[in-house]
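Q: Got a minute? One more chain.
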Amino acid sequence: MSGYPPPPPGPVGVGRRLEEAIELIEMELRHAISYVNDAVIPQVRSESISAMRKVSDTLRNLADKMESQSKGPRS
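A: Always. Here it is, folded:
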């Protein structure tokens, strides 16, 4: 059984229940958006910056290795 009382008869009761449900959905969406903006986006940004730095270091090392091989003795 539901903990909610039954809606009053007629379209007015159903309409009011729909309005309440929409308000609850909108409130939950605002909380979800706030969480994404405050927690998820900064974490993703931080991890992306770290990953780009690691890729940059790897590419720099590869370029250095290729450069040193091209300057080495040729047979």
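A: The CA atoms of residues 24 and 30 lie 10 Å apart.
Q: Perfect, thanks.
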